[in-house]
Amino acid sequence: MSTLQLFDGRTYDHARDGERLLTQLEAVRHVLADGRWRTIAEIRRELDDLGIPSTETSVSSRIRDLRKAKFGAHQVDARCIERGLWAYRLEVIA
């Protein structure tokens, strides 16, 4: 998937950010592909284990990206674990 014109935003710079954001997006999709519930912190730790630098903010952004049509319009479910803590899973369609 080419990153050209996929990502956008006021501070987005394709040369600086394109490959990094696409790598994060693919990694978040990979981690969530088993359909298990995970918090943002758990997803970030799994990305770290894969050698993909990320922050909880970037993981949250990539989850939102997965829901966008231009990134596949994936069904990403969310559930509240406790006040302010949410878990996410990718709805896997067989």
- Radius of gyration (CA) equals 13 Å
The amount of beta strand, in percent, is: 15-25%
- The first-level CATH class is given as Mainly Alpha
Please give the order of strands in the largest beta sheet: 1-3-2
CATH topology: Arc Repressor Mutant, subunit A
Tell me the major beta sheet. Answer: 3 strands, antiparallel
First-to-last CA distance: 22 Å
* Overall 3D shape: globular
Number of discrete domains:
1
Relevant CATH superfamily: Winged helix-like DNA-binding domain superfamily/Winged helix DNA-binding domain
* CATH structural architecture: Orthogonal Bundle
Mean pLDDT: 92
> Please, how many helices?
3
What portion of residues is helical? 40-55%
Total number of beta strands? 3
Poorly predicted ranges (pLDDT <50, ≥5 residues)?
A: none
The H-and-E topology, N to C, reads as HEHHEE
- Which structural class should the secondary elements be placed in? alpha+beta
Describe the structure.
The structure is a single chain. The chain is an alpha+beta fold. It has one domain: Arc Repressor Mutant, subunit A, CATH 1.10.10.10. The protein is 44% helix and 16% strand. The chain has three helices and three strands. It has helices at residues 14-32, 40-49, 56-67, and strands at 38-39, 76-82, 85-90. Strands 1-3-2 form a three-stranded antiparallel β-sheet. Strand 2 and strand 3 form a beta hairpin. Helix 1 packs across helix 3 and helix 2 (40-49) crosses helix 3. It starts with 13 loop residues before the first helix and ends with a strand.
